[in-house]
Amino acid sequence: xxxxxxxxxxxxxxxxxxxxxxxxxxxxxxxxxxxxxxxxxxxxxxxxxxxxxxxxxxxxxxxxxxxxxxxxxxxxxxxxxxxxxxxxxxxxxxxxxxxxxxxxxxxxxxxxxxxxxxxxxxxxxxxxxxxxxxxxxxxxxxxxxxxxxxxxxxxxxxxxxxxxxxxxxxxxxxxxxxxxxxxxxxxxxxxxxxxxxxxxxxxxxxxxxxxxxxxxxxxxxxxxxxxxxxxxxxxxxxxxxxxxxxxxxxxxxxxxxxxxxxxxxxxxxxxxxxxxxxxxxxxxxxxxxxxxxxxxxxxxxxxxxxxxxxxxxxxxxxxxxxxxxxxxxxxxx
Amino acid sequence: xxxxxxxxxxxxxxxxxxxxxxxxxxxxxxxxxxxxxxxxxxxxxxxxxxxxxxxxxxxxxxxxxxxxxxxxxxxxxxxxxxxxxxxxxxxxxxxxxxxxxxxxxxxxxxxxxxxxxxxxxxxxxxxxxxxxxxxxxxxxxxxxxxxxxxxxxxxxxxxxxxxxxxxxxxxxxxxxxxxxxxxxxxxxxxxxxxxxxxxxxxxxxxxxxxxxxxxxxxxxxxxxxxxxxxxxxxxxxxxxxxxxxxxxxxxxxxxxxxxxxxxxxxxxxxxxxxxxxxxxxxxxxxxxxxxxxxxxxxxxxxxxxxxxxxxxxxxxxxxxxxxxxxxxxxxxx
DNA sequence: CTGAAAGCGCTTACAG
DNA sequence: CTGAAAGCGCTTACAG
Lengths: 333, 333
Known about the structure:
Two copies of one chain form a homodimer.
Chain A: H1 5-12, H2 16-23, H3 31-44, H4 50-57, E1 62-67, H5 73-88, E2 92-97, H6 102-114, E3 119-123, H7 129-138, E4 142-145, E5 155-158, H8 160-173, E6 179-183, H9 193-205, E7 215-217, H10 222-235, E8 241-244, H11 247-259, E9 269-274, H12 278-281, E10 287-290, H13 293-308, E11 317-320, E12 323-325
Parallel strand pairs in A: 1-2, 1-3, 3-4, 4-5, 5-11, 6-7, 6-8, 8-9, 9-10
Antiparallel strand pairs in A: 10-12
Helix pairs in contact in A: 1-2, 1-3, 5-13, 6-7, 8-9, 10-11
Chain A binds a DNA duplex (16 and 16 nucleotides) through helix 2 and helix 4.
């Protein structure tokens, strides 16, 4: 059996209350009993039962992370950032993956409530109204990660419109005028739609024509990038550059260009998004927008910490900015 | 305030015990009170407090995962596999990352004990004696993931010697005789040492000479692969193939070969290890050994489940085998 | 079929 | 400086 406060108390000849106080560093006990209590606790290998403690303090020192998919590099890095800072704050992390499914999201919010977590970090697709409602009812402090959200929930994310704009502007600054895009799905309001908006905005602001047929949809994966690029080349082989909404698709684009007997960047320049390791593995290395995944993680955890402890938030919505990584896949025209 | 059993009991006019039994599906209450209890519970939005429940049942339905690093693709995928099956078994997952540091590992074992987890999955570097000892004392059911371990702890992993052998044998079968290796650190008894052993064994069994100077150490990262390959080319430009202990290093090798003005696979063939996405991003695509990360994850979770429930294990050590992915980076001589 | 009681391992006023 | 008591929200024999 595990050793309890009672065991220590009996052995020392004091009461559980005293042992509890001493072990928790509450004010003065006689130096003598203090010493003895610590001694006996160590001898017996006492480990406080946090479950029992949580029941009375109503704090579990654990927070729940609801996330789409750990096998995805991007989310894995966000999770990593969260874990690092959580452990610094002495919070444990319960991780639940949802695949972006609303049903799973609801299930886990309920579960985390039952487990009495002190707070929730939500990094799983767009947050449906049902989740918001449930979160409100359960009254668990929540911060949304990597998603803009209409709700007044605190959140930390990047500005996808602005960052895409930056990528496309870079191509324009390098003299490109006929720029295609390999996008995500426009129904995905985040990396899908917003990155398209940034692309269009950049063209528009620079008096370049937006041709809808030059925006080809992929699913962020490498293969879809290949297919999309092939389609683009078939449609219009006079383009000189392409902006891909993910590095995987960007690398796919490079592959397709080469397969078509053309060269990157001599014939076609490519810019990606993410700064995934594959952007460095490709040949040529892919120019890309570097997302601060780890920072997204730790900033959200910091925010949540403040919310839990009732501290004021200076900003309810934090936008982190991304860095343009200039590499060999873009040429100056 | 959260609604409790007591609230329901009062409203229905029965006792907490009855409510508890009904909600837990314990045998027969009158159909009438059952209905009413469920009704009231739903109306009040009752959610059982699992902390209170755990205190009495001595089960938390959560397991702890001690893992090196979530930002690392390999471990992230292992974690993903674990999470998927854990949630199927209705276990929550507390994830703690250690960076492979013994001190952190010990800290988290203690913490998980205090949190009364039902079991631990250990996927963090070689397990030091101190951890084994602590695990024994705390008596938490444990399964080791992706690491061979002398101890009689159950474990699931791949056979690094055998899989490396397979990779090198493939090169030999394709007519290669002068094969270099980009290895990990030999002090790392797993992917470091064992992959070197497999390489040597394959050469040996095929009467090829082992030249220590053709084994150059990297750190599994892309850059180190480039450096190692440059060194190898400097030492002996008559080699026709290289086996890299990771895909990142393999891709690095390809880059170095190209930079030296040679071609892959025409001049030098390359085989990697992992089947990381970058093996597909590289040009040419990298032939590699595909590790079953997700399966590593779920098999270990399944094993742990059995241990927790006192079921007999047919095998205490499970070896999963890897698949050789034949791609364009190897040529037949 | 249901109640009353004890207990899980802690913490925390309240006294003294 | 320390005890005695109550309580956190449940479950589970034990009666009846």
